[in-house]
Structure formats: structure tokens, C-alpha cells
Amino acid sequence: MTSTAVPRREAVRRRYLLCPPTYFAVDYAINPWMDPSRPVDSEAALRQWRKLRDTLNELGHRVETIAARPRLPDMVFAANGASVVDGRVLIARFRHPERAPEATAHRAWFRTAGYRPTVARLPNEGQGDFLPIGGRVLAGSGLRTSPAAHGEAELAFGRRVVSLALTDPRYYHLDTALAVLSDDQIMYYPPAFTPESNRTLHALFPGAILAGDQDASVLGLNAVSDGRHVLLTEAAHGLAAQLYDHGFVPIGVRLPELLKAGGGPKCCVLELHPAPGGAAVTPTPATGHAPHAAVSAAPALPRPRGPLSAGLVTALRAFPDPAARIARPPIEDPWGEDLQLALYVCYELHYQGFAEVDPDWEWHPGLLTLRAALEHAFLTAVRQGTGEPPPLARALAALLADDSAGTGPSHHLLHHGERWQAREYLVHRSLYHLKEADPQMWVVPRLPNPAKAALVSVQYDEYGAGHPDRAHARLFAEMMADLDLDPGYGRYLEDVPAPALAVVNLMSLFGLHRSLRGALVGQFAAVEITSPPGAARLAAALERLGASSAGTLFYREHVLADAVHEQLVRRTVITPLVGGDPSLGPDIAFGIAATAAVEARLGAHLLTCRQHGHSSLRAPLPDASAPAEEA
After folding, report:
1. Choosing from 61, 106, 150, 173, which is the catalytic residue?
2. SS3 assignment, position 324
3. CB-CB contact of 561 with 581 (8 Å)
4. pLDDT tens track for 552-572
5. Helix (H, G, I), strand (E, B), or coil: what is residue 275?
6. Helix (H) or strand (E) holding 224
7. pTM score, two decimals?
């Protein structure tokens, strides 16, 4: 009697990414396993997930986590958010809109972790359908991932992709019907594949472990292997025995709550396959000051403030189907919270975007249609509010008028302001100053020289004149931190009311339309010419209220820089621009008047709130609320 030697299996230390089931639920049905009428025990789901995580840790693997996001109940299935092969990351593009925002969350995580992720153009569902083995990638299609996406993956990973077609909706991802056990061994369920795919698998892996109906029906193939240890559902008894006979060590896990959504161990585990040479891609070390890092991070989508913003936010959480239409309720108040927030969200897609929004929404036809309607209402209201602007010469002269006896916000803060009021003022201004000069950059390619060159020279100073640590957005972030505020980009979007949103929206409106390039130059001139006196008052006010040198540097810098910029804007931008095209003169004057109008609305809001001792934000800052009444 002879015996066959059992291969000796060696475990390889892996790096995994998991997401806790913080918001796990079965709220919809996108596979046959899901039934929203069946209750889910959230606490049990968390206990079961923690046991899976702890087992991976105990086996010596490196386990990292991505934060769960509200309204994304399936994000616990981290394997679907991306594929990582040889250190190269391809972000998923989900088939179902319910899961689409997960891709943006994964993209943000990988960027923070030091990777350079590629965003897929074609539908694929990450490691659910892309499984590396040896020098190739096995790729599933037919139910979630598009067959055309296999070519995209081949280019992204630089590996041969083997296409496998799935046929049974119960096995909607490749990793529910096939598991990679080592560089040369797999286990799979033949009835889940087309005859042609079965022939391919048999040719590539003639000694593969074949699963029976019972083991497949409990998602026994949704397994995690490190080359020796195989984590699979404990109900897959037949597979466990076969694994043992092939030299593997099966480890049973229980995830009955997650199974209600069609998920098993592998669904929860995204393996971060390392770059060639065995070393995983290491996170890029952080550099510089903490506020600098915070300046560029994409914010979360804000809560809606009415039907316009509600329809927009709901749409942005989904996959950007080119045929999608965004609901457009009647516009009631062009200065109101709802329209101003909706317009700000539309514009923000052209800047840093939002953490959970697919970047392809930026130029989506349906979104642009909505944005055009919002812009029309806003621009009409601004024109009605400004009336016929004065001649350009008179408008510029007015900007140079002495305002030392004024009553605006900077005067109030200098003479009567309290620290909580100063902090609120910075919150209002943070939506622009943390991206200072960005809206004005849109106008650069729309101007002729020499006006273009002169404007760029001013912008060069705004961005730090070649020194990132001197960029004005960076200085503003440091000022916020000095006053115990969060310097994160867009951090206070939820708290800033419509009057402050309108100030930023006006800049974006002018900058994004060539027809309004003259108005943008007027806005630019209004800010650069009038800012030195106000900046001096604000620096003195903050110093009086206890700010350090870091807390006043932003405004002290503007006192000096904008005094020079005032001359440059008038003489080297506006003069040659109007000399070459006199028709731009009224547009520039309108930009000056419009800027004054939105600033006046914000100033009136701030002073009214301060006169009554109320917070000027939508909600007082949690650590420095306004008093009920001003003493």
C-alpha cells in the first residue's frame, strides 16, 4: 500500500484592510442572500467581525482598518472597495448605486496611506472579482464586474488577466465561488461557472480542490488564506477536510449576521498585495505642520438644508450614471440656505471634492443642468441687488476711500469683539481662505497678456512665492489651530450659514464662466485693494484677544502683500485689460459691486448676531458657545 505525501505549506505574513460593521444592516437587496425583512443583530455582527480580525492578528498578520461611513451598510465588505496587486491599487466602480460611495472612501484611504490609486472607468467590484495568483490575476464577470474591465485591470496591474464568467446569482462575485489558497492552488465550485470557464480552470489548476453543493451554499469558498492557514465558515465541513488533506490548516469562523447580506470572511478582508520584492508599499511619511496636511483633505458631504440640496446630496452618493437626472424643486430664495449650500456643493466638486463622492460627478451633464439653474437664480439676485454699477474709474476710486470710521466686522472685533466672536469669524472665512486664490485661478487662461502675467505674479505670492509653508491657505490653517479651531479643509461647512457661502459662491461663479471673466477681475481687485486696512485691524484684534504670532501672521502678511498687490492689480491687470477690450470695464465694475453686496450681507448678519449676543453660526462652536445675552 502506498501513500501520497502531503505538501508542506508555508504561511506568508500578509497585510489586510478591514472595515468594522459600524453601520451594517440589510436595507436593500442586491443579491439573493439579502432580505431587508429579516432582522440583523448589529451587536452580534460586531462581535463576529472582531473575532475574524483578532484571528488574523493572532496569526501574525498586519491588520489595518478603514473607517465605516454612515449610510453605507455594506462597507464592512472591504474586499469590494479596491484591488491591490504588486502594490498597485485599482479603485472599484460599483455596479449598484447603493454601494458606489464606498469607492470614494477607499480612494481617500489609499491616498492617505501613501498609495497612488487608479480610479476604474469600467464597473468592477474590487477583490471580489480580481484575485491574484502566481503571475496572473483571475477575474470574474457576468454579474457585477464588466468583462471589459478585465482589460483595464490588465493595464493597471501589468499582469495577465484570466477571464472567468459566473452564471449563478448566488455567487455574484468570483470570491464567493473560488478561493486562492497559494501561488499554485485554488478551490472552486464548478457549477458557478460557464463550461468554457470550467475548462480554463481545469487546464490551469488540474489539482484544484472542488467544492460540493453543500459547502458552496454556505459560502465556504469565501475564504482567506495565507498559504497555510485558511479561514472559512465553520459550516463548510467538506472543504475543511479536503484542505487538511492538501496540507492546509482550516480555521472555522462564524459570521452568520454578515451572511444575511451574502458576505463571508473574504468579503470582509481586502489583501494589500505588496510591490515586487516582498515589501508592502509603505505609507508616505507626513511632512510639515499638521494644519498643512489638513488643508488638502476632502471634506464629507454636508447635511441638506432643503429640497434642492437634499436631491443633490442624494444623487452624489450614487454612481454617476451619465443618464442620471437630479431632481430640481422650485427655487424659492436665491439667498437662502438651501440654494447656497447646493451651489457650494456643486462648485466644491471642482476643488477638493467630497470624500464619498465619485470624482466623475464633476462634469456630469445632469449636475451641470442643475448648477446652471442655481447660478441663474443667484446671478439674477446679485444683479438686482447691485443695480447699474458706476463707471469703472469711480468704482476703483471708491475702493481706495478711507474706511477708518467704518462699522464693519473688523472694526467691531478690534474695539468690542470677544474671543468666541473672533473664532466664529475665522470659521466663516475658512471656506474660502483654506483654498485662498484657487477660485481666481480659473480666470488665468481667459485673460490676454500682459494682464495674465500680472495676475499670475500676484497669485504666485498667494501660494507662498515658491515656499509652501508661506502659502496663505497654510497660514490661515495655522491661525485656526492657534485659536483652537480645527484647520481641516471644509471642516465647518455644516456650521457656516448662507451669507458666508454666498461670498465664496460668487468667486466660483465668476471664475468658472468665461463670460464673467471681467467680473472675476473686479472681485479680485476689490479684495486686493481693500484688504490691507481690514487685515491690520483683524491682526490687532486677534493679538488683543490672546492670539500668538502664528495666530496673527496671516493678517500681518496681507497688510504687506496686498499693499503691493493693490498697485499691481490696478496698473498691470485692469489698465491693460480694459485698454485692449473696453467692453470689460462695466463687467469689472459689476464684479466690484457684487463683491461689496455679498460682503455687506455677511457683515450685516455678523453684526446683528453680535448685537444680540447670539452665535453667527448655524450652531455655536462646541467648546466656545456664545452667551445667551451679551453683557
Report:
1. 173
2. coil
3. no
4. 999 998 886 656 677 788 899
5. coil
6. strand 224-225
7. 0.61
